[in-house]
Specification:
Elements: H1 2-5, H2 10-24, E1 31-32, E2 37-38, E3 43-44, H3 64-67, H4 73-90, H5 98-101
Antiparallel strand pairs: 1-2, 2-3
Length: 113
């Protein structure tokens, strides 16, 4: 529901849910130490404030701990920011997430409704 309040279409909401399921198994505390992706949307550490270059365009102005806590509102805001940035760059905002690029969550997403 939070996604709808941030201007995301219902179809995109379903894709976001699929990505969160595939990337983190809906685990808000998810942290892949190898790829440094974290939180329910498996957002790269370059987007959180533990990164030294906070002027980076992928910065979400939140701490990495905030990506891994139970409050997903800031995670959603960050995911939408990254989605919009990648939409401008590639035409498809979901290409930020490797699981989407690999072909998951592009079709047959009825399971996530």
């Amino acid at each position: 529901m939070v996604l709808l309040f941030n201007g995301v279409q219902i179809v995109d909401t379903i894709t976001f849910k699929c990505i969160a399921t595939k990337e983190s198994d809906l685990n808000t505390a998810y942290w892949d130490h190898e790829t440094e992706e974290m939180g329910i949307f498996a957002i790269a550490d370059v987007s959180c404030m533990s990164n030294k270059d906070m002027s980076h365009e992928l910065s979400c102005d939140l701490s990495c701990e905030q990506l891994r806590d139970d409050d997903i509102e800031d995670d959603v805001v960050c995911a939408i920011k990254l989605f919009n940035l990648y939409k401008k760059m590639t035409g498809d905002g979901f290409t930020y997430w490797p699981v989407y690029v690999e072909g998951y969550c592009r079709s047959e997403t009825d399971y996530y409704i």
